[in-house]
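Late entry, written up from scratch paper. The run itself happened at the end of the previous shift, but nothing got recorded in the book at the time, so transcribing now.
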Amino acid sequence: MKRVLVVDDAATVRLYYRDVLEAAGFAVEEAVNGLEGLEKALADAFDLFLVDVNMPKMDGYRFLSTVRREPTLRAVPAIMISTEAQDSDATRAYAAGANLYMVKPVQPDALFRTVALMTGGPLS
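Output as recorded:
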């Protein structure tokens, strides 16, 4: 089973991602900010990171740039999902290490298909 770490400070967003992805056959772990996400990423293996931009303690950009410096985490794909919709936001996300940038709200089908494609997970 493919494992996804959702890093977002909004409980409703984490629950939404969990519901969509678990229904599609993924295992989902949650972190409420980038610092907690980094601790979980270093402690356990994940197939994908879903990361918000604006969070307390450590934002998504800093989380991704830190992950990309860690040899054991460098190759794990990451999707940054944010309400920030400017081209500069996407550019900054890619510079930090995101493999894909998506703007909230993300429809359930788009979320699940994108996660499945990036993890090699179930496409049903």
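The chain has one domain: 3-119.
(Scratch paper discarded after transcription.)
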